[in-house]
Amino acid sequence: MDQKPNIDLLVVSCDSFSDAWSPFFKSLRYYWKDCSLNIFLLSNEKECKELNVNTIKVGTDISWSDNLIKAIDNLKSEYVLLLLEDLFIVNKVSSNYFEKILKWIELKSPNYLRLTISHKSKVFDKLVGKIPHKTPYKTSLMPSIWKKSILKEILKSGESAWDFEIKGSLRASKYDDFYALQKNLINYENAIIKGCWRRSIINNRFYSLNINTISRPIMTITEDFIYFLRKKRSKLFNKLPNFYKNFIKN
């Protein structure tokens, strides 16, 4: 594009997860070398020393939502691409595909665009599907682009990330123009589950994590297997029609 996109990239984090910053940005730089967005990282007091990353320090860690509310007030663009620090990118991000997405956003002005497929949405056009008004995880924190003003309206002080995905989805039911891509732009792997490193991340030399110096525990083989089963269950849930998903969640 001839001009800078009206989108900022914000990595949502906190000081207690600063051990994930280096491997996260290693994956971002490797798989999205030509990212055209200004990159910001949300922290409490710590400074992120990664090249070309702007640290937004929000102070005392009150809650996940309070931190995010403060951080987005520091962003000047109309839209924000949210990434969580423990979701490591594992695929080459296509510049051509991202350009198409940026042009679509400029044309359609969506409130929310999910960049990773979680369940089949209603086809809207060749690029995206429309997310129903009422659906579980409508405010999913998978990689997504938000209209900043709408995100601020849905966020509620005191809530955790999990609260936001569940309770925020209920609050978002009154909003239209929520969409999801028909094809993933970003694929990722959960690196940290319930405060523990995934074994696959620790064992992957790409991330350069030293088992002797890491500051958090590693998932046991049993915990890893249970997580694997939960992922399978989640995939089955996402294949259900929206009516049944709402019924189960309610």
Describe the protein.
It is built from 8 helices and 13 strands. The protein is globular, with a radius of gyration of 18 Å. The protein is 33% helix and 20% strand. The longest helix is centred in the C-terminal third of the chain and has 18 residues, at 221-238. The model has no long low-confidence stretch (mean pLDDT 91). It is of the alpha/beta class. It has helices at residues 21-31, 64-72, 95-108, 148-154, 161-171, 199-202, 221-238, 242-249, and strands spanning 7-12, 38-43, 53-57, 79-84, 87-89, 112-114, 122-123, 128-130, 144-147, 178-181, 188-190, 192-193, 196-197. It starts with 6 loop residues before the first strand and ends with a helix.
Walk me through the topology:
Layout: E1 7-12, H1 21-31, E2 38-43, E3 53-57, H2 64-72, E4 79-84, E5 87-89, H3 95-108, E6 112-114, E7 122-123, E8 128-130, E9 144-147, H4 148-154, H5 161-171, E10 178-181, E11 188-190, E12 192-193, E13 196-197, H6 199-202, H7 221-238, H8 242-249
